[in-house]
Design a protein that fits this description.
Blueprint (H helix, E strand, L loop, with lengths): L2 H5 L11 H9 L1 H14 L10 E2 H8 L3 H12 L5 E3 L3 E3 L2 H4 L10 H7 L2 H8 L1 H7 L12 H6 L2 H25 L7 E5 L5 H9 L4 E6 L1 H4 L9 E5 L12 E5 L7 H14 L5 E6 L1 E2 L6 H13 L5 E2 H11 L1 E8 L5 E7 L4
Parallel strand pairs: 4-5, 4-7, 5-6, 7-8, 9-10
Antiparallel strand pairs: 1-3, 2-3, 8-12, 11-12
Helix pairs in contact: 3-5, 3-7, 7-11, 11-12, 14-16
Length: 346
């Protein structure tokens, strides 16, 4: 982390903060979030190189108001995203570089995704989700998020880029925590364009891979590996392939319990006894603070109707679906791996 980012601190919300500051900082938090979304959409970070740039030049490059851009940048700089220098100049911090489109591990697409009008509309109806337990996104499109995205390809493209970017760091941590070389055939269920499966097969050179995805996704795939077989289908209606291990990264949390169990049951029906299912997700602790995990849980509540789960909740889903011997594997990142074994048939 750069010295600039080290010296910049967002308003305190820790236990020592004044109660008024805790409430006011959280109440106004959406403003900083929206500023970040807008700056990502404008591509501001792409116009800042290794040297500082004045806001007049930056505003011209981004087709933005000099005053408006300066004020938005000043706010996010309070959180360590960009550094504000004298005379209206800005330069990168380690955090702001993650908003560059060409930065390895870039999070620009994820910030753009959170700023999409459809998602912002869903969050504005969070009261509906809290009161009813039903996804707020249903007030945007009663069919739900994924049918909506299928009808809005530009937004779907941003969503796909965001999920790929988010997974980049998580994949490295996952590979360091789990021995995939023990499996001959590995099926990635709902694996998008195969970024996780490719990395897993690189780490397990003797294994073969199967990518199970919706037909529209499979039609767009371009594999450069003879070790991956694409399998088109819908895990709610179509049979799943047979494999020694089934990996699901950030899939189960998209769904309420009934649908999550249906996905896991479909895997169990295809899986031979003793096959493994590996769920790679945030795992909530029962009684510890977890702002990242709890924020994701609210996103699921508002947008998909799913949820982040504790290990006991995962264990119950897996037991109901026909799996046994549930264990949790820690990774070097925020995600954990919930591993379970396909139970022997009675």
């Amino acid at each position: 982390m750069s010295a600039a980012a080290d010296s910049t601190r967002p308003p305190s919300t820790g236990p020592a903060a004044h109660p008024h500051e805790i409430v006011l900082t959280l109440a106004n938090g959406m403003v900083a979030c929206r500023a970040l979304h807008v700056l990502a959409e404008l591509g501001v970070a792409d116009h800042i190189g290794d040297n500082a740039i004045d806001v007049t030049t930056l505003a011209s490059a981004c087709d933005a108001s000099k005053d408006g851009l300066d004020r938005a940048l000043r706010l996010v700089a309070d959180f360590g995203i960009f550094e504000r220098l004298p005379h209206g100049r800005y330069r990168h911090t380690d955090a702001s570089r993650l908003l560059r489109s060409d930065q390895p591990g870039s999070l620009r697409a994820l910030c753009r995704m959170q700023g999409l009008p459809a998602l912002q509309a869903a969050y504005s109806h969070l009261d509906h989700a809290v009161r009813t337990g039903s996804p707020a996104f249903h007030l945007v499109d009663e069919r739900g998020l994924f049918p909506y995205l299928s009808d809005h390809p530009d937004e779907a493209d941003i969503f796909g880029q965001a999920m790929t970017a988010k997974a980049a760091a998580d994949i490295a941590a996952t590979l360091g925590a789990c021995d995939f070389g023990r499996f001959k055939t590995i099926a990635d269920i709902g694996g998008g364009h195969g970024h996780l499966l490719r990395a897993v097969l690189d780490a397990a050179p003797a294994a073969e891979g199967i990518l199970f995805e919706l037909p529209g996704v499979v039609a767009e795939l371009q594999f450069d590996s003879s070790r991956i077989t694409a399998h088109a289908g819908d895990f709610f209606t179509d049979p799943l392939p047979k494999a020694d291990a089934y990996i699901l990264m950030d899939v189960i949390h998209d769904w309420p319990d009934a649908e999550a169990i249906a996905i896991l049951r479909a895997i169990r029906q295809a899986a031979p006894a003793e096959a493994r299912v590996l769920i790679i997700e945030n795992v909530l602790t029962e009684d510890q603070p977890d702002p990242r995990g709890h924020a994701l849980d609210i996103i699921m509540l508002a947008v998909t109707g799913g949820r982040e789960r504790t290990i006991s909740q995962f264990a119950e889903l897996l037991r109901t679906a026909g799996f046994s011997r549930t264990a949790v594997i820690d990774t070097a990142g925020p995600l954990r791996i919930v591993e379970a074994v396909a139970a022997q048939e009675p």
